[in-house]
Each structure stands twice: as C-alpha cells, then as structure tokens.
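REQUEST FORM: STRUCTURE PREDICTION
Request ID: SP-0412
Submitted by: Lab K.M.
Chain count: 1
Length (residues): 157
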Amino acid sequence: MGEGFFYFSRASFAFDFLVCALLVVLVLLTLSIYLVRVKRSYKAHRVLQISLSALLLAVIILFEIEVRFAGWSDQALVSPHYNTILFPFLWLHVLCAVVTCGLWAVTLWGALKSYDVNPTPNPYSANHKMLGKYSTIGLWVTAVTGLNFYYLAFVCS
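STATUS: Completed
RESULT:
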C-alpha cells in the first residue's frame, strides 16, 4: 500500500485521499442544500446532487479496489485501539455506510423519476425532502464514523 500524504498518519494514499474527498463532499452537500432551501435553485441542486452521487460512487469503487488488493490492517497494527474498539467501530461505520448508500440511491432514483431536467416542486417533493433529510443525516453519520475510524486506526499510536 502506498504511503499517504498526511504527515501525521500511517494510512495509505487511498485513505488520505478518501478523507479529503469526504470533506469536499460534505461541503458540496451543504452547498446543495443551501441552493435548494434558501436560493430555490432546483436545477443547481439537481446538477450538484447527480455530480456528488457520481463522485461518491467513483471514490467508493477506487477505495474498495485499494483496500481489497492492498489491505489496511498492517498500518493499523500499532494503534492502541487495534485489539479493542477498532473493529467494532469499523463495523458501525460499514453499517452506516451501507444503509446510507441504499437510502441515497432510493432518494436519487425517486428524484430522477419524479423531476425533469428543470425541476420544480410537485406532489413528490414532500417525500423527496424527507428522503433527502435522512440521506444527508446518514452521510454525515457515515463521515463522522469514518473519520473516527481513520483516527483510531492510523493516527493514534
């Protein structure tokens, strides 16, 4: 596994990149919500959400390829949490990520079916707003658990 670019971490480049990508995604997600809720810019929200979905999918696929081929546990062995809370925390993160991925897919699919290229509020909007709220919460929880896992596995020593 290649060395990462954060001086304080034992993680690989893929893990460090994922941390950066995750922070960018959270900022863009917040911007997207601002655009739709405050600015009522439905088209910008649509474009940004589709772009975020594609970005997340690409990052997840590349990350999974890296983890499957190179692993990660060798870099985490020196963590004082390796034999205590690290793996339960990893499973919590994976559970949150899988649930959020499914919820995000349902939210995106429903929006693509219910809104055209120039979206405007319609009868589906209340359902979409609820799904979007839960998807957003899920992504934030996934990010927080992922960042905590990263810290416990690759920063603590």
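NOTES: The chain has one domain: 13-155.
Reviewed by: T.R.
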